[in-house]
Design goal:
The protein is built from six helices and four strands; from the N terminus they run E-H-H-E-H-H-E-H-H-E. It is mainly alpha-helical.
Length: about 160
């Protein structure tokens, strides 16, 4: 999930939701959709960004878990998430999943920007080498097999 902060502010101004909270909502919808599809439960962990920011993101997570978000009802999240509270760990905890996310975030950002003609330079060689591996991992529409909107999200379009 990639939130274009400039476009978000330009389109919605002061009414725009916080970009991290929007991204969390999009991520939770897709993650829970996948978990519900395979009839499993999962956990969510974020890397700490500071006490206040962590609290606000945790509140957002709990709101989604408790009330749902957009047109997705709360049961969708409650059926697949193991906790009503977001787990937050500091970078110094050296959590493997958070380290992997750190390694992939910039290459995935470049790929999504390139896919949407918003990248003004060639993607980095490391990213080029990751493309075939990542393409196999993206969530896809169950019947159509499309990645856009399921495994890759750019908002606003």
């Amino acid at each position: 999930v990639l939130i274009d902060k400039f476009s978000l502010r330009e389109k919605y101004g002061d009414l725009a939701a916080h970009p991290y909270h929007l991204a969390l909502g999009f991520l939770l919808q897709r993650y829970c959709g996948f978990l519900n599809h395979i009839n499993c439960c999962g956990d969510v962990m974020a890397e700490s960004r500071g006490t206040r920011e962590d609290q606000l993101l945790g509140d957002s997570y709990t709101r989604v878990f408790t009330n749902g978000i957009w047109s997705t009802r709360e049961r969708y999240f409650q059926n697949s998430l193991t906790s009503k509270e977001l787990k937050v760990k500091k970078k110094s905890a050296n959590i493997a999943g958070l380290q992997l996310a750190d390694l992939l975030v910039h290459p995935v950002r470049q790929i999504i920007l390139q896919d949407n003609d918003r990248l003004d330079r060639e993607i980095a060689p490391f990213t080029v080498s990751l493309v075939p591996v990542l393409e196999e991992k993206y969530n896809r529409h169950l019947y159509q097999g499309t990645v856009e909107g399921y495994g890759k999200v750019l908002y606003p379009k």
